[in-house]
Amino acid sequence: MDILIYNGVLVTMDDDLTVVEDGAVRIRDNEILSCGTMDDVAGTEAGILIDARGGIIMPGLVNGHTHTPMSMFRGLADDLPLDKWLNEHIFPAEASQVNPGSVSKWTAHSCREMLLAGITTCCDGYFHEIHAARAMVDTGIRAVAGQGVIDFPAPGVGDPGQNIASAVAYVNEAKKLSSRLMPSIFCHSPYTCSGKTLKAAKEAARDAGVLFQVHVSESRGEPEMIPGLNGRSVVAYLDDLGILDASTLLVHCVWVDEADMKIIGKRGCGVIHCPESNMKLASGIAPVPEMLAAGIAAGLGTDGCASNNDHDLFAEMDTAAKLHKVVAMDPCVMDAVTCLKMATIDGARAIGLDRRIGSISPGKLADIIVVDTGKPHMIPMHNVYSGLVYAAKSSDVSWVLVDGIVRVKAGELV
């Protein structure tokens, strides 16, 4: 039987940015059958009726970069620079505390947090990722889940010489789990993976037809940690290795210049901006307005809870908008529409899923949320995009559907 969501302001995020005041969406199985006004979606009686109560009906949010098991380290080592944070706290904690059981438990915890916050898709990367992937499937979230690759002994891969083989084995197993789960290969960074490893991992990802992820140019001192740059930028180095293409996701890209952005745009890579994590670690500010002007597909990510400390994409949109305005000293930069696109359709484009999710259109998968607009901080609402980016909170999410299945009802997990 159909699901009918009605009596809300429909924010489609389609190519025309269509907004319907008296909006409704009809869902059949796991797809959007029709959307528009109540008259537009009139048809057979629906089996499930969801009254949006005047709230906002919109696409589920896309969290373009997470390390879901790292919610176990939330607040563990705050107020530290990136190198000290990683080497003296996070890496030792991972060595002692990361195992299949903890990965499964804390991934599920993060997925519940994200679903309650209106995030219907996340793009993840970590170790023991098969256990993370199973937890994601069990919670019902949609996910791109990447097995971590690093040139050091890592949780689940004690012999670094087996890192690529382990990633390939993971991809083959994860492909069998669910249509909502897309496996991926995630090289931690160019300073923890050699050029040889980066090339081999990318080749494995190409062979398997999956997304390749890598942290890039996160900190100012990153080039000093990468042997063999020979005066090249990190992006130019990766391009020379042959790993940049439309199926490569570059995370952070804080310290990139115009030449780097030309390479990224030419190769068609997606980029994920993590403003709160970059701010907290004092890594810098990515030139996102310039990337967008160059036509680069850029989404938003929360990063892991060890460096953020939450999975709240509404807060991330608000932060991104205001951060870039003050950097540019221009209140028009990174407007509300741009930031909402980064959290929905552009985020989906960056991770290669824009044909399936990210907007509300007939034929797309039914990943839809309803945002309550009845609380004082949402009244009045002169502009729906401004309301979502500058006023809405993750706690305002009242309904969440993933693949046409209700996962949050009246603000509570189903």
Descriptive account of the structure:
There is one protein chain. With 414 residues, the chain is an alpha/beta fold. The protein folds into two domains: 3-60 and 358-413, Urease, subunit C, domain 1, CATH 2.30.40; 64-350, TIM Barrel, CATH 3.20.20. Helices cover 33% and strands 24% of the residues. It has 13 helices and 17 strands. It has helices spanning 82-97, 100-116, 129-139, 163-174, 195-208, 234-241, 258-267, 275-280, 288-293, 313-328, 336-342, 345-350, 384-391; strands at 3-11, 19-28, 31-37, 48-51, 56-59, 61-66, 119-126, 142-149, 181-187, 211-216, 248-252, 270-273, 297-300, 368-371, 397-402, 405-409, 412-413. The strands form two sheets. Strands 1, 2, 3, 4, 5, 14, 15, 16 and 17 form a nine-stranded mixed β-sheet that branches. Strands 6-7-8-9-10-11-12-13 form an eight-stranded parallel β-sheet. Helix 5 (195-208) links the parallel strand 9 and strand 10 (211-216). Helix 2 runs parallel beside helix 3 and helix 4 runs parallel beside helix 5 (195-208). The longest helix is centred in the N-terminal third of the chain and has 17 residues, at 100-116. The chain starts with a strand and ends with a strand.
